[in-house]
Design goal:
By secondary structure, this protein is of the alpha/beta class. The protein is about 30% helix and about 25% strand.
């Protein structure tokens, strides 16, 4: 079964800054001002959760693998996510403000997913999934260990072999081929104390993507481009609100993103919806950028 997540989870508090007519404000109110027309919603969030919510609406059978506690389980039910496996109970908080210009997210992230959480059950869910998702590195303090465990599992190492290693990062560099397609969207991890280790792992993943039959894909946005453009991958996807650039090492293709006809309910999760569209097309044996754009557009227009 397709297993999605393997990343930190969040309770998202979404604040839509509106006027009395329900339209998004052009600018944020000045300090001290009380906006009495805002819409505030609490949902289960995080990249893995957002991706699963869209995959469910696309009709794809899957299981969510993230930290879950009792409150989070109730919020997952609100998003019609019923198949899940809890890695831990450590849930983070995000507050997102959305106005006409876009959105700003404020994260309180203390998650530590590492070797201790890489259990046999988690290992099996990862290796039995046709697609492995490596996401949200910047919001996990132990991402260097977690990514190394993912890479080793994809390279054929058992859970016991991973736990017996005294140097899981060094062992990860011995992987000579990955056995599943990896979708890698690390996000902004540049503030991480382990940035250099994550860069080393990403560079190695890029090398593997060039020689493995299962071609890994690196995804990133415009803000992350200066950092991630330095890495060589068999396939890279730059996605923005205006365009998507797909580089498959042989050609560079640009796809324009249509302008929305109405204001979105929120911009939060648009990139995750695009990611879900990529997964959907991959499972049909072809990367279809137009399809992924359409999925993201339908999500923003509340049609999905």
């Amino acid at each position: 079964m397709l297993a999605i997540g393997f990343d930190p989870s969040f309770i998202d508090i979404l604040v839509r800054v509106e006027n009395k007519h329900g339209n998004l404000l052009e600018h944020l109110p000045k300090p001290g001002f009380h906006n009495r027309f805002s819409t505030i919603t609490k949902i289960a969030g995080g990249n893995g959760v957002n991706i699963c919510a869209v995959l469910g609406k696309l009709g794809l059978d899957h299981i969510l693998v993230v930290p879950i506690n009792e409150e989070f389980k109730r919020l997952l039910a609100d998003r019609n996510i019923t198949k899940s496996f809890s890695i831990s109970e450590e849930i983070n908080i995000t507050v997102a403000l959305t106005w006409k210009e876009g959105d700003v997210q404020f994260n309180q992230a203390t998650t530590r997913l590492g070797m201790d959480e890489w259990t046999q059950e988690v290992h099996d869910l990862w290796v039995n999934s046709p697609v492995g998702t490596m996401i949200n590195w910047g919001l996990n303090e132990n991402s260097h260990e977690w990514v190394a465990c993912q890479l080793l599992a994809s390279g054929g190492f058992s859970a016991s072999e991973i736990h017996e290693s005294d140097d899981v990062l060094g062992l990860a560099k011995s992987v000579d081929e990955v056995r599943q397609t990896l979708l890698i969207e690390p996000g902004k991890y540049f503030h991480q104390p382990n940035t250099k280790k994550l860069d080393t792992l990403l560079q190695y993943l890029g090398k593997l993507s060039l020689k493995s039959d299962k071609k890994s894909i690196l995804l990133y946005n415009e803000e992350e481009k200066p950092h991630f453009s330095q890495f060589t991958f068999a396939q890279k996807i730059l996605h923005t609100a205006q365009k998507v650039i797909y580089d498959n090492y042989e050609e560079n293709l640009t796809f324009n993103v249509p302008t929305l006809e109405t204001d979105p309910i929120t911009f939060v999760g648009a990139g995750d919806a695009f990611f879900a569209g990529i997964i959907d097309s991959l499972l049909k044996e072809k990367i279809d950028i137009d399809h992924a754009i359409l999925v993201a557009q339908q999500y923003l227009a509340a049609k999905l």
